[in-house]
Amino acid sequence: MGMAWEAAVEAEQATANRTDGVMAKGAEGNRLDMPVASDQLKKFSFPSLWKANIMAFGVIFLVAISVAIWQTRYLNKVFLNEARDHARLAAEIIKLNAQNAMEAANMGRDIVSSFLKSQIKFIRYLQRVEPFTQDELAAFAHEAGLAGITILDNASGEIIESADGWLKGKAPSLCRQASALRTIEHDHIFILNSPGRKDESVCVITGIDATNVQKLQQRISLDNTIKKISHLAGVKFVRITDKESACSEINGWGCAADCKTRHDVLYLDTPSGPVVRVQFELGSDVLVLGMDASSLRKKQKNIWMLFLFFTLVLVLTGGIVTWLLYKHQMSYLEKMRDYEEELFQKRHEASLGRSAATIAHEIRNPLNSVSMGIQKMLMDKNGMSEHNISLLLMLKDELVRVERIISGLLSYAKPMKINRQPVLLSQEIRKVLTRLRSRHSVEDTGIDFRISAETQVEADQHLVSQLFENLLSNAMDAQPDGGSIEIEFLVEPGFQVVRLSNQGHIPSRQDLEQLFEPYFTLKTRGTGLGLAICKRIMKAHHGFLRATVKNGTFSIEVGFPITPGNRNRKTVG
Predict the structure, then answer these.
(1) What tens digit of pLDDT does each residue of 515-525 get?
(2) Which domain holds residue 20?
């Protein structure tokens, strides 16, 4: 009989080892499958479209800013060239006007000089015929349009003037000077002196009003031309200066060669606004022309405002498109991950199914033989000692436990087929409690039903019974010395929820994360498949199963989806 007990123990150990080996092989196979699925995901996943989109919009942005910079530089170049051309044109105008003014001035002086010379010749002739009196000389000056006439006899020193003091006593000194056309600026008079020949002692001085001639010269003068150019639209200032002074305005010390080669056109910010300063050589001097650059700055501002607007539109469009592509890609990757999980789960279930079939075939038949042998020995127990009988009974119980392990494994491995029908969960739980009372000592375990709201659900009655039998059995096992189990019914949006709570063994946070994983158990003799089967049942029903610990109470919540047809069929207790 001792040998039979040892054989039974060895059989159980072999069964456990075989089961662990098959599960390890299946788990190892699944671990080997995971990289393959991940590689397939990487191989067949879409490229990072949102990253490519960001790069594309970045390229467009770079092109846009390049175009804006090119347009700005091109606009500067065109404007500066125009300013240089304007300065060249202004210089040519000034040069031509200066030449014309000089020629006009010389021509005017020549005309005045010729007129006065002819008048002097005529006066000399008349003076030789009969000397002039003052009144006659005044009348002649008035008729000839002269400002004044003075006749000085160098021999006698006699002076006859058409108007007293019109030369302000300068006649003697003028008669001692060579003949020339002179200008008395403050009186606006041209005078011509004729000292006379050596054989003639009479000196004649005539004068004519220079006001009109001076006005004409002023009108065609260089200063007036520069003043008119400075009043043209788009011209800030015009001036003529020497080369050193022009260069000192640029570099602060002046260097004509340096300014000529490198600083003919400059962009300046002045109190009156932006100015393009252009200098152009005008003979030995330099023409400095300041062109208004407000239009240039305005065009530059318009270009950059347009660029900023385009950038804003580009950023908004790019952000929206990138976000849509990102969401699309994340959705695709999520589908791929779901597909990978589903593929992994199917491979896992297939591997587990093969393992379970092997266990059922390889282990159940020997176990049946052992079980029949033990039953035969118990039937012929006459003459056996009480110790041997207790060993046989223990072996029988262990065989029953091994059978439960195998049944649980097969139940977890096989595909679940849902036969949906209207089920009232409270009724099924009461049936389960009735069955459990025959297997558990529940006299010291209080059951507290709280039905806040309940409605029928579409579920598989057999699987619902199996679900709550596992959960309630675990709750009772967690309180071996008695306690209470609170069963609360409530309705959450779209779900009928049953909450099972007890204050027995409280799992740690790490244990809560693994609680529904296969082969994880907190019992010393548990298989670790009960809660995993419950998880599969709820997944097959598209519900949820969750575990929480709050205020020293361990709770498991079960949620079955409520179908639209059952929403109005409620029982409130």
Answers:
(1) 777 777 776 66
(2) 2-44+337-387
